[in-house]
Amino acid sequence: MTRHDDVPPASAYPVGLRLTGRRVVVLGAGQVAQRRLPGLVAAGADVLLIAPAATPSVEAMAVAGEVRWERRTYRDGDLDGAWYALISTDDPEANAAASAEAEAR
Fold first, then answer.
1. What is the pTM of this model?
2. What structural domains does the chain harbor?
3. 58-85 burial code (b ≥16 CB/10 A, e <16)
């Protein structure tokens, strides 16, 4: 048997998701989104980005048509129809509300 008590806990476990054609909602367009969006796009996800502002790299993806961008803050109901969501705004209250919406589904 393998001992696990000497292994530091991981913050997340990586998984493989089949995202082709699936709606993915990304809340926030900062550094986290900038790192994650290329992989979501490469996986064929139908990405909806919701954020009032974005990093230049994220904005370039929207201009290129790789993601759809709604320039606004999160509001209840934004996760309707989403198969997967990435919640990464810089607003703790919005993150909590979106997380609660996701958990309720």
1. 0.86
2. 23-103 (3.40.50.720)
3. bbebbeeebbebeeeebeeebbeebebb
